Amino acid sequence: MARVYNFCAGPAVLPVEVLQQAADEMLDYQSSGMSIMESSHRGKEYEAVHNEAIANLRKLLNIGDDYAVLFLQGGASMQFAMVPMNLLGQGMTADYVNSGEWASKALKEAKKIGKVNVAADCSKDIPTRIPALSELKLTKGAAYVHITSNETISGAQWKMFPQTEAPLVADMSSDILSRPVDIDKFGLIYAGAQKNLGPSGFAVVIIRKDLAERAPESLPTMLQYRTHIASNSLYNTPPCFGIYILMLVTRWVLKVGAENLYRRNIEKAAKVYAAIDSSGGYYRGTAVKEYRSDMNVTWRMASEELENKFIKEAEKNGLKGLKGHRSVGGLRASIYNAFPMEGVDALVSFMKDFQRRNG
Ligand code: PMP
Question: How many whole angstroms separate alpha carbon 236 and alpha carbon 93?
Fold first, then answer.
């Protein structure tokens, strides 16, 4: 069996030992005679998985009792709509920071629901970046302030979060669990699972419970955070298998140590950026240095033709998924928690070798 180095942006690489354990337990989960996928979501086997997944997240992120941890279907995109549906009351304004493609999508949904103020917009800036805190034009008495902690496509990342009077809401899809965060600074955090947490199909939502009470009772039951808080994300059948994998991934993070992963993430990203910066302009980073993402490293080359050649040859060398997002082109190396250091070293030596042969 040959595993490649998988640089995909999401779904993305998962820890090998998690995949191995899932494979070992596939036919007979803990002597139940069936896989966890086939088990009742009300049974004791699945219940233990579900509750451990929540407990692990609580431990890793130091989440207090005033917050609920939810697993909700529809991915992060569903949260683009659920956040304003639940938190943006009539006559209120929500502040949105538009830092790129994902922030724009969140903003577009909020506008369908209520009144929105664009607190800053650098979504079209090249090189790509995050607005400086001093640029933010926040509304007095805003319902909430929405940010996108890491723009997966452009490779720009908030390094310091704003202190806001209104509850801070963050889309952390592509950098949750990759670095320390102070949960108490946020009213709500959401993240699609398919990068640092597990497979696709759902989002993790961490919400300060009092905020869920803002939702109008007329909102459909499934769209109210209240429903899922009251039922511990078991109002209907949850994505059991995905949550099982998340449970294994969070167990792995606890074992390796979140701090160790954080340090390793910085080191991994620094190696790729160093390869870009020392190439004499052969590789050109696309994000402003100060805001360079530690999760998604993006760069361009002299022509699309050369970029395609790079991608093709990289693939032949077992480096897969380096093509930039279809909306922007270029190259992108997504190096989430589970991405190994050896894969980064392999990429860096391939970059140097490619330049030597084609420079
Ligand atoms: N936000 C960000 C920052 C993302 O990177 C993505 C997906 N790549 C999404 C939202 C959308 O997530 P989903 O596909 O789970 O709806």
Answer: 32
